[in-house]
Amino acid sequence: MPCRFIVISDTHFVAPPADREGTWWNRTTHRYSQKMGEALVELVSSLAPDFVIHCGDLTGWDSKANCELSIEFMDKLGCPWYGTPGNHDTQHPHGRELFNETFGLNGRTWSYLRDVGGLRFFFLDVVHWHADSGESFPFYDMEQDNSGRIVGMGYAECDLVWLERELEQTNRPSVIVTHAPICFRDTYPLKTLPYGKPVMRKMTPPSEFINDMIGRKKLSELIRGNSSVKACFAGHWHINDAVVSDGVLYVMTGALREFPYEVRLVEYTGSSLCISTHSLNVPELREISFVKEWNNEWVKGEQDVRNIIFTFL
After folding, report:
1. In the chain, what percentage of residues exceed pLDDT 70?
2. Helix axes 216-224, 157-168, angle to 10 degrees
3. How far is Cα 56 from Cα 163, in angstroms, rounded to an integer?
4. How confident is the model at residue 19 (pLDDT cuts 50, 70, 90)?
5. Do the Cβ atoms of 256 and 36 come closer than 8 Å?
6. Spatial contact of 43 and 278, defined as CB atoms under 8 Å apart
7. Which listed residue, 230, 258, 268, 301, has the most CB atoms within 10 A of its CB?
């Protein structure tokens, strides 16, 4: 059953007034959420997918107004959409409530599956906050983080148990969607680190610019042992990238809130995934966001990670 779907990530919608700007690889243009959202609706309409996948961080700062703006634009896309929480969506209860209401979740877990377009999608929540005590929390706790008790984010153990059980019973091609990536390169050819900080070496390991997902290796082993999983999609790093490991395609999609403002179009044929990368029609935002002196144009990815044909048996 062939299908076409769009993958987006890190929209970071912020409701007006939003005059606060940020930076990551480039400037993060919070104040232009309305323009970005309108351009997203226009692009999705022109590409006419069957559905849309969001890899998390719908909101810039988790608040009721920002959640409502996120839903407003996602519901204007003209097709069904599905998503997984990002770290920005868990700063207060509003973001997780958004996922409960939108996808009919029970409020105890934010992982779920959907069968659409001939594929089984597992939306795995990997943004529980892990403390040095071994506990994990579904909401960000600034007090614990400031005291140094938060060691990172990852899935709750019950979510991995759920995924393992469901994968054992799955006999159809499957896709796993997370916020943080499960597999990536050992090094990247960075010009500068986030915020324009200088790099210390020509090829930079990810550990120098972002924290690893808690439990990632265990999750990778589970995927490696299951032949149903064909691809994994993620965001969080705000870059376009793709790697193949043990017969599974791992794709990262850049952020819609900063340069280069792009989405992925995935065409599933039944035996392959054909992926192309498409830009929002916002040349003025690309110009505002891109910081020339930081030279971080590399986040767009080389041609081989922007347009991909991945065939599987």
Report:
1. 99
2. 0
3. 18
4. low
5. yes
6. yes
7. 258
Q: State how far the alpha carbon of 154 is from the alpha carbons of 80, 86, 135, 206, 282, in Å.
A: 27, 11, 11, 16, 33
Written as six digits, the tokens of 81 are: 């959409």
Residue written as token pair 């990172």: 152
Query: Does domain 3-311 fall into CATH 3.60.21.10?
Result: yes
Tokens of 130: 């892990």
Domain boundaries, the chain: 3-311
